């Protein structure tokens, strides 16, 4: 008589051609070669273990076999981390738990392929382990992380965990001093970073919000936590000169940056060109004689330098010393008188 038994539970499964266990997934088959085969349908991980075929002779004979059941990995909802919201500067630990046979390995990577920043400024593309520790998290850590479980039995599985980092607004202004002519189109720019997303707008000197429409056009382009703010003035008028403030605020704070828009003298460049033309005509009349005037030399480069100085700062007047260094003076009457005197000399000649 032949019987099949489950060794670890000492359960008799079959005797001869009869199934003894109440497990409907167990079956027995017999061939003409006196072979009894134990059959299991819909194999489960719980079926893993030792089985024994026993022949009731005197003495009894038996043979054992081990059934190993491999199971693809599965990620457990608990204690695996869910999406997290943290303040910038805090420490973060992401957890991932998985089952499977053999036991799966856990690999972390960022969904977008960016490097994972760890302690001591270490950057890696992937890291193994059931936990991912990020000390002093910052805005660059924000994004989706994938925990991937694999054990060689397909398919591998993954879970997305989104890390959201909250921080108050921060504004940077590339050009804090902008010059423009009357009638010119000008663009003022600020760059802001904040999360949760910030409210952004421009104000003028007295705190009034710059209106949208007419000569003013305000545009905001955002990408994740970064915002580019632009204020376009289509045609600058005298009343538009002054200070503009770009404001960014969210639930964690508020900050601003200031841009000063100043007036560039509109006709200085044209006057200097006209002055140079008169000087050249005077030289042709005098032949090789040299016309002497107040600091107006026969030097086109010098004239170009003077034209550059005229638009450097509306509040200061600049002149060049003999060593070609810029010297600033707060006496615009001196420069104007020099230009007028020079002009008079050319007119007289």
From TrEMBL:
<keyword id="KW-0393">Immunoglobulin domain</keyword>
<dbReference type="InterPro" id="IPR003599">
    <property type="entry name" value="Ig_sub"/>
</dbReference>
<keyword id="KW-1003">Cell membrane</keyword>
<keyword id="KW-0677">Repeat</keyword>
<feature type="domain" description="Ig-like">
    <location>
        <begin position="73"/>
        <end position="162"/>
    </location>
</feature>
<dbReference type="InterPro" id="IPR007110">
    <property type="entry name" value="Ig-like_dom"/>
</dbReference>
<keyword id="KW-0732">Signal</keyword>
<dbReference type="GO" id="GO:0043005">
    <property type="term" value="C:neuron projection"/>
</dbReference>
<keyword id="KW-0675">Receptor</keyword>
<dbReference type="InterPro" id="IPR003598">
    <property type="entry name" value="Ig_sub2"/>
</dbReference>
<feature type="region of interest" description="Disordered">
    <location>
        <begin position="278"/>
        <end position="303"/>
    </location>
</feature>
<keyword id="KW-1015">Disulfide bond</keyword>
<dbReference type="GO" id="GO:0005886">
    <property type="term" value="C:plasma membrane"/>
</dbReference>
<dbReference type="InterPro" id="IPR036179">
    <property type="entry name" value="Ig-like_dom_sf"/>
</dbReference>
<dbReference type="InterPro" id="IPR051170">
    <property type="entry name" value="Neural/epithelial_adhesion"/>
</dbReference>
<dbReference type="Pfam" id="PF13927">
    <property type="entry name" value="Ig_3"/>
</dbReference>
<dbReference type="InterPro" id="IPR013783">
    <property type="entry name" value="Ig-like_fold"/>
</dbReference>
<keyword id="KW-0472">Membrane</keyword>
<feature type="domain" description="Ig-like">
    <location>
        <begin position="169"/>
        <end position="260"/>
    </location>
</feature>
<keyword id="KW-0325">Glycoprotein</keyword>
<protein>
    <submittedName>
        <fullName>Mast/stem cell growth factor receptor Kit</fullName>
    </submittedName>
</protein>
């Amino acid at each position: 008589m032949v019987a099949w038994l489950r060794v670890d539970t000492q359960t008799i499964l079959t005797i001869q051609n009869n199934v003894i266990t109440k497990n409907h997934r167990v079956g027995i088959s017999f061939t003409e070669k006196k072979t009894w085969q134990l059959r299991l349908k819909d194999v489960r991980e719980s079926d893993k273990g030792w089985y024994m075929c026993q022949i009731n002779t005197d003495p009894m004979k038996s043979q054992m076999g081990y059934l190993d059941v491999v199971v693809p990995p599965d990620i457990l909802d608990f204690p695996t981390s869910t999406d997290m919201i943290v303040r910038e500067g805090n420490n973060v630990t992401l957890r991932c738990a998985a089952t499977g046979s053999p036991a799966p390995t856990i690999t972390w990577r960022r969904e977008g392929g960016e490097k994972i920043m760890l302690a001591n400024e270490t950057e890696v593309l992937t890291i193994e382990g059931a936990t991912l520790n990020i000390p002093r998290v910052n805005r660059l850590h924000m994004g989706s992380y994938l925990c991937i479980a694999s054990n060689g039995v397909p398919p591998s599985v993954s879970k997305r965990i989104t890390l959201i980092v909250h921080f108050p607004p921060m504004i940077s202004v590339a050009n804090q001093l902008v010059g423009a002519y009357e009638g010119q189109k000008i663009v003022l720019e600020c760059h802001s970073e904040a999360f949760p997303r910030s409210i952004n707008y421009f104000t003028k000197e007295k705190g009034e919000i710059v209106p949208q429409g007419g000569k003013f056009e305000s545009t905001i382009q955002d990408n994740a936590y970064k915002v580019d703010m632009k204020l376009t003035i289509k045609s600058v008028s005298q009343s538009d000169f002054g200070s503009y403030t770009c404001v960014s605020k969210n639930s964690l704070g508020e900050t601003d940056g200031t841009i000063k828009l100043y007036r560039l003298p509109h006709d200085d460049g044209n006057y200097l060109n006209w002055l140079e033309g008169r000087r050249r005509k005077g030289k042709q009349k005098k032949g090789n004689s040299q016309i002497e005037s107040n600091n107006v030399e026969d030097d086109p480069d010098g004239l170009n330098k003077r034209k550059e100085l005229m638009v450097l700062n509306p509040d200061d007047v600049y002149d060049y010393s003999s060593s070609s260094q810029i010297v600033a003076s707060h006496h615009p009457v001196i420069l104007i008188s020099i230009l007028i005197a020079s002009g008079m000399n050319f007119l007289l000649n």
